[in-house]
Amino acid sequence: MKPTIRSPGIDRRALLSSLALLPALSAPFLPASAPAQTPAPGVLPSWNDGPAKQTILDFVRATVERSSPNYVVPEERIAVFDQDGTLWVEHPMYTQVVYCLERVPAVVAKKPELKNVEPFKTVLSGNREAIARLPLPELEKILVATLTGMTTEEFRAEARAWLDSARHPRWNRPYTELVYQPMLEALQYLRDNTYKTYIVTGGGQDFVRVYAEKVYGIPPEQVVGTAGGTKYGYGKDGKPFLMKEPKLLLNDDKAGKPEGIHLMIGRRPTAAFGNSNGDREMLEWTGAGAGARLKMLVLHDDDKREYAYGPAQGLPDSKVGTFTQALYDEAKQKGWTVISMKNDWKRIFAFDSEARSG
Amino acid sequence: MKPTIRSPGIDRRALLSSLALLPALSAPFLPASAPAQTPAPGVLPSWNDGPAKQTILDFVRATVERSSPNYVVPEERIAVFDQDGTLWVEHPMYTQVVYCLERVPAVVAKKPELKNVEPFKTVLSGNREAIARLPLPELEKILVATLTGMTTEEFRAEARAWLDSARHPRWNRPYTELVYQPMLEALQYLRDNTYKTYIVTGGGQDFVRVYAEKVYGIPPEQVVGTAGGTKYGYGKDGKPFLMKEPKLLLNDDKAGKPEGIHLMIGRRPTAAFGNSNGDREMLEWTGAGAGARLKMLVLHDDDKREYAYGPAQGLPDSKVGTFTQALYDEAKQKGWTVISMKNDWKRIFAFDSEARSG
To answer: For the complex shown, is ipTM > 0.85?
Structure first.
């Protein structure tokens, strides 16, 4: 075999480019209104009947019924989910980037010498256009300053406190409420059928682990994400700690997703859900296994209830969660299922006041 | 907090130094004799009554009984086990090192230009004393040649075929039969009490994953080990593969064990089992959590039924599985439990013909 190797594409550009969208933070504030309607009975109640819902139902039946030619033994039932844009809202900015920017004042308070040093000075100014223009190496300094240099326990406490108080600018709700109700139901439906559900995210593994169990029912050991090294040491009291180091171990995006899956899970998934070009290799890797495989991509085509971006199918271009026409074409050619948020989902969030039929 | 940082100690010396023991391969061959006796009734039947067995029983009761002040919720019940010397025999050489040496002829058959190149030439010569004298950088070339440069699926097939045919020189049995029966019972007993059992090994993660599910009931996603990077690519047929790269991501030994636990599990374990100085930090990290914690070290003090080495408690020094007197003293000082193979284990292997009382 004379294979061609695709570079793992180590760049954090995708994560950081979302900063260019900072002015969008001034989007209109829509208050939550009436209480949520009772979901329809049956499985996947927030999904409209249609090809996407049917694909999930057919896949589960084909892999769990003992008589099926595509039966999958329970221990091989692995379902992987991208997070940003697949399980929760990723616009106008990846939540973790918001976190890093909003942590800057606390970092400067501890190290006042940074106050007049770039890029901290610009971030503190609150000038969003200037922040959006910061070059990539400067932005990386912000990630390093806010995600490393503390113990794993300190980081957990900082992230937890922020998640409790931060609000999304459009819905004025905690980010952890901006999860897609249909996807929560898909997670639960798969787990009810002995699937082990994993998050496989380009976001920070330590960050997502802070809330994944509570929000998605996914325990820390089933969160695979971009991961840095830690360093074992001892405090003055002799107690050991793990210090978060500015050393990238796994860039869990694009080709890094199947690589991360191999590192952390060691099995090829049977089902994979994504929403962008960052998920392409994960779906290819999942689809290349034998038997029935579920490969799904969420298309953000609902600017009324959420956002519309692509640029697949003529949707507006986006640097956060790019879904190119080429990916759309590969999906069609390989038989992957594209989920239309507009048509396939009755409701987007648990707090949505009304459900909509397809 | 002004902490001292301990270097993660990245060296593969421990793995490789076992080569120095190569002449021991000519140890006497003891045939398997009578069939195994039926185990005693009750839990942990291959453990003699005594402090080690009692410590396990007390710990489980303290953490699973709802009324206990040290009750641990099921999702936090994480038990980690070193492998070499803790779950199976590590003398006279780590099994994976035997694998790497025995793979050399196959590697040379595929690349005949290596035949007269060191260190392959020496390994092919079969001259054990010369092999034992190979310097570390030369030995690393053997690890790289036999553990990387193939796809993850090719590696799995190669390792599986070897494990099926290779025999331990002393017992003339497959390595996978040389697992400690009392530890299999401890694994099962913990799982019966909703503990999730993990292997945390200095050995290669991909290697151990090949057999861990069958041998220990531990699935691939619960094997944490020394891990290298992979690279995603496409074959001529367009099918994706993961190529094993000579790039170290995690050196899962000593301080690398808590670091690996954080990376791969993301929770502090409640129970930890080891047998050597390579497990010290893992036991410290486990023990530093609140509530009841199980910290156990297997002491190889039974040269009749297995091996005796230490050098704790005056046992012969060993480069494979070093258990220093300093570690023994730390164990006593911190209340860790030292398991005496000689006194605490009724039988060592499932195939042992007779059980022995303590």
So the answer is: yes
